[in-house]
Amino acid sequence: MPSLQTAYGGLTEWETEMLVLIARRLSGAEIMERLVAAESMIRAQVSRVLVKPGLRGRTQAAVFAYEARLVRPNGR
């Protein structure tokens, strides 16, 4: 069974959680509030979430999350 990092483009568990929040269309401020982290850290981590699996933006991240079955069309 592949590890979580292997299964989701090399993302850590925390980055995978961020990917789910991005796919749910949360803003940077909303992600910051949910994960209790500084805005600069969230911005840097969102960039990593996009770069590691080779995604070009939030839309591709959402598609990636849906295809990986991390989120469902109803947002859960």
From TrEMBL:
Keyword terms: DNA-binding
Residues annotated as domain HTH luxR-type: 8-65
Taxonomy, superkingdom: Bacteria
Any one GO molecular function term: DNA binding
Keyword DNA-binding belongs to the record: yes
Entry protein name: DNA-binding NarL/FixJ family response regulator
